[in-house]
Design a protein that fits this description.
Layout: E1 14-27, E2 36-48, H1 52-57, E3 65-77, H2 84-95, E4 106-110, H3 116-124, E5 130-135, E6 140-142, E7 148-152, H4 153-166, E8 169-171, H5 178-187, E9 188-192, E10 198-202, H6 209-244, E11 248-250, H7 265-282, E12 289-291
Parallel strand pairs: 1-4, 3-8, 4-5, 5-7, 11-12
Antiparallel strand pairs: 1-2, 2-3, 6-7, 9-10
């Protein structure tokens, strides 16, 4: 006999898992620094204050709030002396194992010190990584080329710090490299130059590869979450307009590449803005609206 479902509502919101995406970060090492890998499980779901009975019957439900959780499932330092083709082959073999072999798995690499040519080896091996060059300053911008970004180290570190303090990022305690990651976080320092520029780096003689590869994975997870939120909003606006009887046509704004390994946020943002303009105008005028980019 199945146990009876509780009708008592929880005192704290319960996270209900809806879907999972895997994010793999790779900080490419050089002669004195090992290459580091970080595998993060990006868990998408909702926070619910409903009882088990309400969630099962879907009766008298309180609104549920969308939420994400990031869990570090694997940390790895590759041995020094590996050639870059060997590193690429190791990453490819890692991505071929379940559950990372899903088409939604995302890969991000740091090609700051090694150059664009090393990132090209990943592409030649059949992978489509997001390629990041870490910079000074306070901005993140798209860089020339396919899936390439220039991101300030301050942004990467602040996202990681925020995720740790809010509890949205958790590190599995059983990981062998969990202790070294904690030590790297303690040794990671912020300093301000005479010109007033803030810089972030490990103390002299210490490594920061685990921190950076985790920060890259968190940054990409945040980017993907923002894109997912925009798409949900586009769908909501479309449904609102359909129910209101609004007819509209958008030119090339929705000509997007929806392949799961593409993370092209700019077209998504343009589409969201275009749909928003349609329905903003429709509130005062229900006539036919034509918007083209």
């Amino acid at each position: 006999m199945a146990p009876e479902l509780s009708r008592e509502r929880p005192t704290e919101p319960v996270f209900l898992l809806k879907s999972t995406t895997w994010v793999v970060g790779c900080d490419l090492g050089q002669s004195n620094d090992p290459t580091a890998l970080c595998i993060v499980e990006w868990r998408k779901g909702t926070l619910s204050l409903n009882s088990e009975w309400e969630r099962h019957t879907r009766l008298d439900l309180l609104p549920e709030k969308p939420a994400e959780r990031l869990v570090v499932r694997h940390l790895e330092r590759l041995k020094l002396g590996l050639s870059y083709p060997e590193v690429v082959q190791h990453v490819k073999q890692t991505l071929a194992r379940p559950p990372l072999d899903a088409p939604t798995t995302k890969l991000i690499i740091d090609e700051t010190g090694v150059g664009r040519a090393v990132g090209d080896i990943f592409v030649q091996a059949g992978m489509r990584p997001q390629r990041v060059t870490i910079t000074a300053g306070t901005e993140e911008t798209t860089a020339p080329g396919f899936n390439r970004w220039s991101v300030a180290k301050q942004i990467l570190v602040s996202r990681l710090d925020a995720a740790l303090h809010t509890g949205s990022l958790r590190i599995a305690k059983e990981l062998r490299e969990a202790g070294p990651l904690a030590e790297e976080l303690k040794n990671f320092q912020r300093s301000v130059s005479a010109a007033g520029r803030a810089t972030y780096a490990a103390r002299v003689g210490m490594h920061d590869d685990l921190v950076l590869t985790t920060a890259l994975a968190v940054w990409l997870g945040d980017k993907a979450a923002a894109a997912s939120t925009r798409l949900r909003r586009v769908g909501q606006l479309h449904e609102e307009g359909r129910r209101a009887g609004v007819r509209y046509r958008i030119g090339s704004c929705f000509t997007l590449d929806w392949r799961p390994w593409i993370l092209d946020l700019d077209p998504i943002a343009r589409a969201a803005r275009a749909v928003a303009r349609v329905f903003d105008a429709a509130r005062g005028d229900r006539s036919r609206i034509r918007i083209c980019r």
